[in-house]
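OP here, attaching both records as promised.
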Amino acid sequence: MKPVTTPRTKPDRPQPEPLLRHVVGDALRRERLAQGRTLRDVADAARISMPYLSELERGRKEASSEVLAAAAGALGLGLGDVLSLAQQELARSVPRVRAATAPARATVGHRAEVCLAA
């Protein structure tokens, strides 16, 4: 008689954070669709090819800041606006790390500041 086995369950793994190119592409696409504009219209206004803009929106290409600024400008936005939309999406999609495991941050008043060094 064979012993009864139960399927092994995989330990819970944290979901990987989304790639920036996916989040930025989603933000561009949502804004374009909200404006009721076509890929052709925005690509022409940004002076980039329609297939390239499509690949940016789908997160298949990593765009330079110049290209992102051009696409944002074609949508009547600044580069900061697109990055802000992407940040909002990241904040919704990435679970917060518990305070006990979060890295220490310098705080000033009620704002948290992160220092970056090159």
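Record two, same layout:
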Amino acid sequence: ADKTIEFNASQENILINLDIILMRRAISNLILNALVHNDSNVKIVVHLEKKERTHITIKDNGKGIEKKEVDNIFDRYFRGTNTGTLHKGSGLGMAIAKDIIQKHDGEIVINSTVGKGTSINIVL
């Protein structure tokens, strides 16, 4: 497997008040999803940037998600159609990530193009 995760940030230290354990779980869930739902040669880029608010982007060049599935992706127990048989997820990862981000007064938006990849934008 040749999976790549690239991390970059606009500055060395970004101070933000959050529950580190919960936020780590949210971001881990999102990165894990990008890994398990794509082929082994997927490239994932995590970008952190401080503007008026803190922006976290998790972008992959994988299979992408159909529009109708993007609309349901945060529903509890929702599992997309291209979920491989090997991945027996609970269907809770995305719902949990969204709950955690919203509890921090944040927003999460997903943009995806089938065949091109997916971009998850979080603003805190």
